[in-house]
Amino acid sequence: MNAHNTPGIAKPLTLPCGATVKNRFYKSAMNEALAGRDCAPTEEHVRLYRTWAEGGAGVLVTGNVMVDRTQLGEPGNVAVEDGRDLNMLRRWAAAGTRNGAHCWMQINHPGRQSPITINQHPYAPSGGKLEGDYGRFFAEPTALTVEQIHDIVHRFATTARIAKKAGFTGVEIHAAHGYLINQFLSPEDNRRTDEYGGDIEHRARFLFEVFDAVREAVGPEFPVAVKLNSSDVPIAVKIDDRGGSFSGFDEKESIWVMKQLEKRGVDLIDISGGTLEKPLIQTNSGAVEDRRRGVYFTEFARRVKGELTVPVALTGGFRNARDMERALDEGITQMIGIARPLALVPDLPKRIIRDRWDGSVDLPWVTTGVKALDRAFGGILVISWFELQMNRIGHGKRPDPRIGGLRALCFAIGKHGPGALAPRHRKGHQ
Ligand SMILES: Cc1cc2nc3c(=O)[nH]c(=O)nc-3n(C[C@H](O)[C@H](O)[C@H](O)COP(=O)(O)O)c2cc1C
């Protein structure tokens, strides 16, 4: 608490572009999986975001919205390529900006991380089939031509322009979790020998072009955030393979990219991560895992602290007001990124700010009751379970933490077909 007894979390924050957010709650992106085959937003999006906006968060980031409807990352993604869904987008944005909340659209292209059940023709910085167990769930991608890269840059800008027109009050570019921009940044995925591959200056070129085009599309006074991995390349395996001389998209490169984005006028960096050995959402054991892990990426955020002046949102593992205040006090983050707890307690910000609630949101252990099924569907089980909770809120119901894992899997199949159970992320990314 500060001298005036206002918790840090309740204080407004003014971003470099001049926009002010009313408090430090940053609802991180969660794919709602609420769009139909037409990839259009629905009444359920409107209801869900109205509930969240009334729940008191300063910023609501939408689930990832795709720039190309033929290239989806997950079943149920919204895609925005043109003005055809402008009316529903307007209603979504209006709902998400009630109660003084900001509502920012997260914009994404999945690249090769587009499951074969929904996309037989994915694109990537370089060709080549995925090796290992996960290979059969993803079609072999085609390497993008320079012309196609320019087209995708243009698409990011178009989606951002439409988001602004519809009334969203900011955008977040998704450069993390193994999707296309992350693939360009990663030397594992990007083996190009042209101006988009090679050293980090060149691997980051695609991200910088996307950022500049988006900034140009929305103007200087509109919040543009970037979600970036602290590092993403398999660590120990590769160090061993290369005799100890690992040089991937590591923390040093990530900080360099952040500094470049700061110079280019980014308003906020959303720090995330995920490696082969440590996927972001590691298990389905809920609070047990949370207590073991604490707040994610804290050490990295400490390293970043002295290097950046642009605001940071640290996302992952925040479950109680004490940890939030500590992180803000320490100055390792300016916004508190929070995702899964808000699918269970949508008005958590209000409870903490207004009611001074000092409990902890315990995420349940999501289980089907059958060990083999839990093992087989681990990541998908958790994702489907949280999608089911968002679906409930979207239908005007309360979240229900007692729902079992089997019901979540049945829900996913019922809504999106059996393909919903294929992994949506390569191992190591979430
Ligand atoms: C159901 C679900 C969907 C998600 N979808 C996205 C997404 O669209 N974009 C994104 O950047 N992160 C996504 N994430 C990751 C979250 O934004 C967040 O980084 C992660 O859940 C850790 O934060 P938490 O511990 O507060 O949940 C998703 C997570 C879940 C559980």
Would you mind describing this structure in some detail?
- The chain is an alpha/beta fold.
- It has a single domain (8-364), classed as Alpha-Beta Barrel (TIM Barrel).
- Helix content is 37%, strand content 11%.
- The strands form 3 sheets. Strands 3-4-6-9-10-11-12-13 form an 8-stranded parallel barrel, surrounded by 5 helices. The chain has a two-stranded antiparallel ribbon with strand order 1-2.
- It is globular.
- The two termini are 34 Å apart.
- Residues 234-247 have low confidence and may be disordered.
- Flavin mononucleotide is lined by residues 28-31, 63-64, 106, 174, 177, 227, 272, 280-281, 315-318, 338-340, 383, 386-387.
Question: What's the domain count?
Answer: 1
Mean pLDDT: 89
Proportion in helices: 25-40%
Order of strands side by side in the largest beta sheet? Answer: 3-4-6-9-10-11-12-13
The strand count comes to 13
CATH superfamily: Aldolase class I
Shape: globular
For this structure, the CATH topology is TIM Barrel
Q: What is the straight-line distance between the termini?
A: 34 Å
Tell me which ligands are bound.
Answer: flavin mononucleotide
Radius of gyration: 20 Å
Structural class computed from helices and strand pairing: alpha/beta
Largest sheet: 8 strands, parallel, barrel
Name of the CATH class? Alpha Beta
Q: Give the ordered list of helices and strands.
A: EEEHEEHEEEHEHHHEHHEHHEHEHHHH
**pLDDT < 50 stretches:** 234-247
CATH-scheme architecture: Alpha-Beta Barrel
